[in-house]
Amino acid sequence: MASSSRSLLDRMSAAPNDAWGPEADAAADAFQPTHRRPKRPREVELDPEYRFTPWLGKVAAQADEDKAQRLHDEIVAYVNYVTPTHQEKTTRTQVFEHIKKTIKTRFPRSEVYLFGSVAHDLCLPDGDLDVVVELPGVDHPLDKKNCLFNVSGALKASGATHDVFVNHFAKVPVATFVTVPNFGSYSFDVGINNTDGLKAVTIIGSFLETMPALRPLVLVLKSFLKQRKLASAASGGLSSYSVICATISFLQLNPTNLPQDSLNKPLETKSLGILLMDFLLYFGSTFPLDDCYISVTQGKHLPKESADWITGRNKLSIECLVDPENDVGKSAGKIHQILETFRDAHKLFETLTLSPNESADILGDGNLARVTQKTLDQREHISKLATSGNLFKRVPVDRYADYRSQRRGGYNDRQAKSQYRPPPRQDAYVDDSYRSRDYGRDSGSGSRDSYGSSKRRRY
């Protein structure tokens, strides 16, 4: 018998049907494994709020200009529009000085600085203002968390804002808030001792001085990405820092071999349009994403195999200007969608035709740069605020209005009691008394455990 030649273990573990028979062989030949359908990347959708091009009226149409020259003129007009006016700069500086004074009153030993795009006027009119608070001795995450909540209470008590969101779970904990209308309705991000961005301010400033085409290209690219909701690293987009580094690298490499005057004298040679299209073509079609990473410090692309700090082969990798082992591009999870939008924008420009009798709108029709109604209203609000004298004028707010409106029941009315919440104290601070655990036992004198849990930490 066939079963006699098989061991007892084989017979016990065999399937009900004979796995050695011809039926099993036929079934094995007919079996086709099902493959999972690969996920299709979501199509990038334009934000419908971006509809206006108010700078277009200042662009004079010329009969003999080509598309590249027309695009150059529109870029110049756009940059002049988004660059903050003297009035806007003054108002923004005054609001920041108020925020700075409030923080330094709470932490006298602190230093408060602006960094990021706003430090070089590379931010869009609706961009955030990044603030770093240098505070000696605050390195532990719990200490940073406490300081951010202290900053939150101080800012609300000063009347600058009504609500502060402290994201202490983020990789870089920040306090995010929007100032009240009489303080300009500015968006702020405040961090504690995140000084890498502050150190990069000087480096980026030196590139802006030697690369006159850097600022116009960065401003257009940031608007291009923001229309498509691809300008935030938190959602997988390309951060402002990454855009700046990529643009610097493009100007360093000059992959299309443009004349040097086109890079050094873009206004005189009217080359901003050509530079923008070459940027979109290079990063959309020929950039070696899988094999190389961007190194602005060395001014070239280097193989990814030579850097042990790179974790993904098919991801964008950009060497940080301050910390060479920090990949500032790894957070761009939607890099393939971003590069595809660059490629599509270049194709659209190639198919665009100029009518001799009509003024073109390449930035608007090509969805390269537009602004929202909110941006127009914000700039008008800042102008009125600066001329009306209402800056820093505090509007009285009844902090107890929400609680008076709630129905107060008797002592046994549990539902009414559960709905009532006492108003938060604006002058309260969080101390270290809740630290019941002994972090780092036997760490010796001078450790953070040498402080009593009931003592208030002084910063």
What does this structure look like?
This protein is of the alpha+beta class and 459 residues long. Among the domains are: 52-83 and 212-378, Orthogonal Bundle (Poly(a)-polymerase, middle domain); 88-197, Beta Polymerase, domain 2, CATH 3.30.460.10. Helices cover 40% and strands 8% of the residues. The protein contains 16 helices and nine strands. The protein has helices at 8-13, 22-30, 67-82, 86-106, 141-158, 196-210, 214-227, 240-253, 260-264, 266-269, 272-286, 335-351, 362-365, 373-388, 401-404, 414-419, and strands spanning 50-52, 111-115, 129-134, 164-167, 174-178, 187-192, 292-295, 300-303, 371-372. Strands 2-3-6-5-4 form a five-stranded mixed sheet, sandwiched between helices. Strands 1-9 form a two-stranded antiparallel sheet. β7 and β8 (300-303) form a beta hairpin. The protein is globular, with a radius of gyration of 30 Å.
Number of helices: 16
Count of strand segments: 9
Low-confidence stretches: 405-411, 427-454
Label the overall shape: globular
- What pattern of helices and strands is seen along the backbone? HHEHHEEHEEEHHHHHHEEHHEHHH
Please summarize the sheet with the most strands.
5 strands, mixed
